[in-house]
């Protein structure tokens, strides 16, 4: 035990007291906005009321209302957390700092994933210890999700979850120097829904100037809807809850089981709900019903259109995907193998047709009818349609410096079927392999520590000065750095290119 007194830092709302962890200092659960309850529930994030005395910042605190689901044979808690920890003050963040007197260290702000309906800053895989150990001031945030964060209810400001993230980044700009961070050297990074959100923030005029660099892991700006399309979900949710489809109706339902029951119901693939746009496409492919919308002050344009007009050109970008993203969704559930049956070709078409009007052409482009099992065809097609190709499109349209990576290390789980699935890069990025190792761990029993050392070092290097050891991505050259192989390759255009904007 250290004989030094606990660390205390003065913030704009009052002093906070953290804890010492060896050479690090840690502050947990610092509110960056007022509790989103009462009049603040369906309102933009408001300033934190000043507290009296020194506020303890040693416990993780509450997170957004949510209900997690289990995957057969997989311990998902390190990836998404332990579920809902109730409490009002969940618009909060953690700060991990290197101890010592040195100031103006690089800052990294992590935004967690979870389909905009689950997840937490406290999931075990995303520990801030490794980044703080390497000289980074690390920040992780919670934000509103689901109904309260990403449902465009009439009478309620849109994109409240994104507005929360912008408020948290404003807190970092104003407060992080007191924790030893440099507010002029901020890298925001995230995975899955967190990466989608960051791509949206790159395109948002309200987030301009709040970060200098961004790392987008298995995400892009292609998963937003127009407000009119998203309001079909508002009406469906209101009908399930038996309330009017407006602010008063949803405000009459407290966060808790009835609301989470409705979220779970609309998220089922069997629920009848058409969220296709005018082009006949459903840009989220059913993975989540709750996503940001464009056409408001946060996202005046769809993100790709905003990039074409120069939005985010001042941000240096590292973006990438995993080679077999959809395996996480289709292998543990058994869906991929079930489609490898006599009727698999028809079922694959039925599944894809809900989101893609040229479903049969897509399946043929990915090998249907040429001896490849139907389940594998659908898995490969969805990996490119949902994740890999839209990330390349975001890289193509981004007018600032852009580097592209691919994570291709394959987990041996599920009889070698899990592979380089969605989420697999996280324990390597955070150098936290122990959290995902074991009989039910994402990475199996013996993931390579040397690869975690290399990937984590690349993320730290990018946060320090923006440098990376491979050439930027260009529309013509298409340089993609393979993380496991440790080498850049010239990547060809994917078949998915013919079916997406």
Automatic annotation (TrEMBL):
The protein's Enzyme Commission number: 3.1.1.-
One Pfam family per UniProt: COesterase
Key words of the record: Hydrolase
GO molecular function, one term: hydrolase activity
PROSITE patterns found in the cross-reference section: CARBOXYLESTERASE_B_1, LIPASE_GDXG_HIS
Residues of the Carboxylesterase type B domain: 6-467
SUPFAM superfamilies: alpha/beta-Hydrolases
Broad class of enzyme this protein falls into: hydrolase
Hydrolase recorded as keyword: yes
Xref: Gene3D superfamilies: alpha/beta hydrolase
Recorded family membership: Belongs to the type-B carboxylesterase/lipase family. Belongs to the 'GDXG' lipolytic enzyme family.
Protein name per its UniProtKB record: Carboxylic ester hydrolase
Source organism of the structure: Sphingomonas taxi
């Amino acid at each position: 035990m250290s004989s030094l007194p606990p660390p205390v830092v003065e913030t704009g709302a009052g002093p906070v007291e953290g804890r010492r962890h060896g050479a690090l200092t840690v502050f947990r659960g610092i509110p960056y906005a007022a509790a989103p309850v009462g009049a603040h529930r369906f309102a933009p994030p408001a300033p934190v009321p000043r507290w009296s005395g020194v506020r303890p910042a040693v416990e993780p605190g509450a997170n957004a209302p949510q209900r997690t689901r289990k995957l057969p044979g997989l311990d998902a808690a390190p990836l998404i957390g332990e579920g809902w920890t109730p409490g009002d003050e969940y618009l909060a963040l953690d700060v991990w700092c290197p101890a010592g007197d040195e100031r103006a260290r690089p800052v990294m702000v992590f935004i967690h994933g979870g389909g905009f309906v689950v997840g937490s800053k406290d999931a075990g895989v995303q520990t801030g210890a490794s980044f703080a150990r390497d000289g980074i001031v690390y920040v992780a945030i919670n934000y509103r999700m689901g109904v309260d964060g990403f449902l465009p209810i009439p009478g309620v400001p849109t994109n409240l979850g994104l507005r929360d993230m912008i408020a948290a980044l404003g807190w970092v700009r104003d407060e992080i120097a007191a924790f030893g961070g440099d507010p002029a050297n901020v890298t925001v990074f995230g995975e899955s829904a967190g990466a989608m959100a960051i791509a949206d923030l790159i395109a948002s005029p309200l987030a301009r100037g709040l970060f200098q660099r961004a790392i987008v892991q298995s995400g892009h700006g292609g998963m937003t809807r127009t407000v009119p399309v998203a309001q079909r979900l508002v009406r469906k949710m209101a009908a399930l809850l038996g309330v009017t489809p407006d602010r008063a109706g949803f405000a009459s339902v407290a966060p808790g089981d009835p609301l989470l029951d409705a979220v779970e119901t609309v998220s089922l693939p069997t629920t009848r709900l058409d969220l296709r746009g005018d082009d006949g496409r459903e840009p989220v492919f059913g993975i989540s019903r709750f996503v940001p919308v464009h056409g408001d002050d946060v996202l005046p344009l769809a993100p790709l259109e905003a990039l074409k007009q120069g939005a985010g050109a001042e941000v240096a970008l590292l973006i990438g995907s995993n080679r077999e993203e959809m395996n996480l969704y289709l292998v543990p559930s058994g869906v991929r193998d079930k489609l490898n049956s006599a009727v698999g070709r028809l079922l694959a078409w039925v599944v894809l047709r809900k989101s893609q009007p040229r479903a049969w052409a897509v399946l043929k482009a990915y090998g249907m009818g040429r001896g490849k099992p139907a389940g594998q065809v659908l898995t490969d097609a969805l990996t490119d349609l949902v994740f890999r190709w839209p990330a390349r499109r975001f890289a193509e349209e981004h007018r600032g410096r852009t580097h592209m990576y691919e994570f291709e290390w394959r987990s041996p789980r599920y009889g070698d079927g899990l592979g380089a699935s969605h989420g697999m890069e996280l324990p390597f990025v955070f150098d936290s392999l122990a959290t995902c190792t074991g009989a039910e761990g994402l990475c199996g029993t013996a993931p390579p520590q040397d690869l975690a050392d290399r990937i984590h070092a690349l993320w730290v290097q990018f946060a320090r000065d923006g440098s990376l050891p491979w050439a930027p991505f260009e529309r013509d050259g298409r340089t993609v750095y393979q993380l496991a192989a440790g080498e850049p390759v010239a990547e060809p255009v994917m078949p998915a290119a013919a079916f997406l904007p």
